[in-house]
Structures are given as C-alpha cells and as structure tokens.
Specification:
It is a single chain. By secondary structure, the protein is an alpha+beta fold. The protein folds into two domains: 114 residues, no CATH class; 127 residues, no CATH class. The protein contains three helices and 20 strands. Strands 7, 8, 11, 15 and 18 form a five-stranded antiparallel sheet that branches. The protein has a three-stranded antiparallel sheet with strand order 12-13-14, with no helix packed on it. Strands 1-4 form a two-stranded antiparallel sheet. A hairpin with a 5-residue loop joins strand 9 and strand 10. The longest helix has 39 residues. The two termini are 19 Å apart.
C-alpha cells in the first residue's frame, strides 16, 4: 500500500511540473521570439516481479533434469511500475509566425539562427529582434544589452542618420553607408546545446558547442511571434489536470485501504 501511495504521488508531482510548464507557455504567448517548452515525463525503472513461492536459485519446473533447465531463471510474473518523473524540460525551437511592425529597428529571423547580445554574464543568444537605439547610439535589445556584430563588437548607429536599412544577410546601412553586420549564428541540435536563462535569452551548455553562420535570413520591420499554440496548450492543460485528478483519487483510495488495514483488519485479529 505504501508503494501505491508513492507511485500515485509521483504522478501528481510530474503533472504539477507539466502544468507549470504549460502555464508559462500561455503567459508568454505574446512574447516576441519565445519558444514553448514541453515537460517530458518518463517512468521510473520498473520492478521485475517473480513468484513469491520460488526460492532464490531454485528451478522447480517440469523441464528440469540433472541441472539442465529450459528456464534458466525464476518464472517472471510481470512488471510493476514505480511511478513517473520529469525527465527534462524540452524547448521547441520551431519557427514562430512573423508579424509586420514597420519599425526599422525591428528584425526577425526567417529560418534557423540566433542574434548575439552581450550581458554581464557573457554573450547570450536570442530570437527576440525588438531592438532600439540607445542614447549613445548603441543598438540594444529590450533589456538594454548590446547587440553584437560578426566581430563581437557593439553596433553604433550615428545620430545624424535617419534611414536604417538591414539586408537579409545582416548588413546594416545608415543612409546607404555600411555601419556593421549583425551576428547571426546557429548550433548543431539547439535543443540539446542551449538552455533558457530568462529574459528571452539562451546560454550554451558545457562543453560549449562551436557556433556557425546560420542559414536563416533577417527580415527588417518584422518580429517573430511566440510559437505557442494557445488552443493546443489549453487542451494539454485539461489533459494534465485530468491526470493529476486521477493520481489524487488513487492517493485517496490507497489511504482509505491503509486505514482499513490498520484499524479494522488489525482489530479483527
């Protein structure tokens, strides 16, 4: 009975994490460049069951003869699951819808790739292309971090320049004069090599994979929307709630059986 309580409780914990993940996806449904997460649930290592009346090391089937047996082990009854666990929080890096804004400093990546920004913790990566010109002319993101060029330097937009043009390869023109080229990088298997850090930024896992020039292109005056599907997330939320509810009822049932075993069966003997 104790095992039943633990098994059902692990299911509740796993579904609680899944619900938190879905809620975070819904909260960021309108966040520029946000990539939804999935809580991947796995089973604990199952316990192999064998007949309780079989002695360890003995084989008592009719095929045994002078130490030879077709069945080399004890007869297997089946498997008993020991509960569920959250194996990982996986990020879906699929492309989000592109929305035209008309702002000449809004940029979206069509295809694979990430912008580079400099933070106090080092270089980070993002799909959020809502950029601004700081008071000193630096091109920054919404958090005030510098957007970097292909050489890892700040991009300065002169104050006297009024027309900014960004080519698909990331080259920035200010009144037809080239002032830099946006860094657009990518990595092999971003799902495994990149981790979310908050503020719509990603950091690299250790050991850091080698960056390469991305195959995507930059579109000016456009922002990439979140790839969260609100209807799909609501369906997942309902399913997660039902699973949590089932595990909760299992805990209640196990608790009731344990109560009867202690207070009634014990009293009867």
């Amino acid at each position: 009975m104790w095992r039943g309580l633990y098994t059902a409780a692990t299911g509740m914990i796993a579904e609680g994490v899944r619900t938190d993940t879905i809620a975070n996806n819904l909260a960021n449904a309108n966040t520029t460049g946000y990539k939804r997460d999935d809580a991947v649930v796995a089973e604990f290592e199952p316990m192999l069951l064998r007949r309780i009346d079989d002695k360890s090391g003995e084989v008592n089937d009719v095929t045994s003869f002078k130490g030879f047996s077709i069945n080399k082990g004890l007869p297997v009854v089946g498997h008993l699951g020991l509960g569920a666990k959250v194996d990982e929080i996986s990020t879906d890096h699929a492309q989000g819808a592109l929305q035209t804004t008309g702002n000449q400093l809004d940029m979206a990546i069509a295809g694979d790739g990430y912008f580079e920004v400099r933070t106090p913790q080092g270089v980070r990566y993002t799909r959020d292309g809502a950029f601004y010109r700081a008071a000193d002319g630096r091109l920054v993101n919404t958090s005030g971090y510098d957007v970097l060029d292909t050489a890892g330097r700040n991009i300065i937009i002169p104050e006297e320049n009024t027309v900014i043009t960004v080519r698909p390869d990331g080259i920035i023109l200010a009144d037809d004069a080239e002032i830099g080229q946006l860094a657009l990088v990518d990595f092999d298997n971003p799902r495994m090599s990149m981790l979310k850090e908050g503020n719509n930024l990603y950091r690299l896992q250790d050991p850091a994979p080698r960056a390469r020039v991305a195959a995507g292109s930059i579109q000016q005056g456009v922002l990439e929307r979140s790839n969260t599907n609100i209807v799909g997330e609501m369906v997942n939320l309902i399913a997660s709630y039902r699973s949590y509810e089932a595990s909760s009822k299992a805990v209640t049932t196990q608790d009731t059986l344990l109560d009867h075993a202690v207070n009634e069966v014990g009293r009867g003997t």
